[in-house]
Design brief:
The protein is of the alpha/beta class. It has helices at about 35-40, 60-65, 70-75, 95-115, 150-160, 170-185, 190-195, 200-215; strands at about 15-20, 50-55, 85, 115-120, 165, 190, 195-200. The longest helix is centred in the middle third of the chain and has 17 residues, at about 95-115.
Length: about 230
């Protein structure tokens, strides 16, 4: 009779990882109706690319770097070839420009020291309309109380450090404005919680698709490794 001669375990080939460093607009939320775009990103990726979502609610560049459970935990896990997407701004309400810039530079350097590829991501917009139907105001576009234009600083750091940039501020602004005051409510928790900062599952899924498209456009992930639709 056939007999078991032995069992052999062959380690699976290491999948390329996409680490996410961010706040509540990116993180895995515990339940409906909240969802961060990072929570929805895996559905758009095929075998061989995985998402490690280390985004956390309430984090700023200051707190993310300072919390031993966050950056100090993430950084050693990064392997050569991994992507690390950084979107931190919503909670940097009292961070001055020099500190914000330096913190982004610290994150970029830390990723590169591990052999990873940093990618800076400008923050998703807040759904805060002007009377003319645009989002051309500091609240929507993440300009803090000190006058720090977070998207602009992020773009500047990306250019200076030669880091790929996903301008999610511009992409989400265009989408929200195209849907209008009423149509864009479904992307956020406007009706459920009068919340125009955090996304619904629908909004997070739409924003994850924008990130997917940018990853392919910028040749960070091969087209064959993503799902469309």
């Amino acid at each position: 009779a056939p007999a078991l001669a032995g069992i052999k375990v062959t380690p699976a080939r290491h999948a390329r990882q996409i680490f996410l460093v961010g706040d509540s607009t990116v993180c895995d939320q515990p339940g409906d109706p909240y969802s961060g775009w990072g929570q929805q990103l895996p559905q758009y990726l095929r075998e061989g690319v995985s998402v490690a979502n280390y985004a956390d609610s309430g984090e700023s560049t200051v707190s993310y770097l300072g919390n031993p459970k966050l950056w100090a935990t993430v950084r050693p896990l990064i392997r050569p070839g991994d992507l690390v997407l950084v979107q931190l701004a919503h909670n940097d309400k009292t961070t001055d420009e020099a500190t914000y810039r330096a913190n982004l530079e610290t994150l970029v350097a830390g990723v590169r020291e591990r052999g990873g590829q940093p990618v800076l991501v400008t923050p998703i917009v807040r759904r805060w309309f002007n009377p003319d139907g645009t989002l051309n105001n500091g609240t929507a576009l993440l300009v803090n109380g000190l006058g720090v234009d977070h998207p602009a600083v992020t773009r500047s750091v990306a250019a200076a450090q030669d880091v790929p940039l996903i301008d999610l501020t511009a992409k989400t602004k265009a989408l929200v404005e195209s849907l209008g005051v009423e149509g864009s409510k479904a992307l956020y928790l406007t009706d459920e919680a009068r919340d125009n900062t955090h996304t619904s599952v629908r909004g997070a899924t739409a924003y994850a698709a924008l990130v997917r498209d940018e990853l392919v456009t910028r040749h960070l992930v091969p087209k064959g490794k993503v799902r469309v639709g």
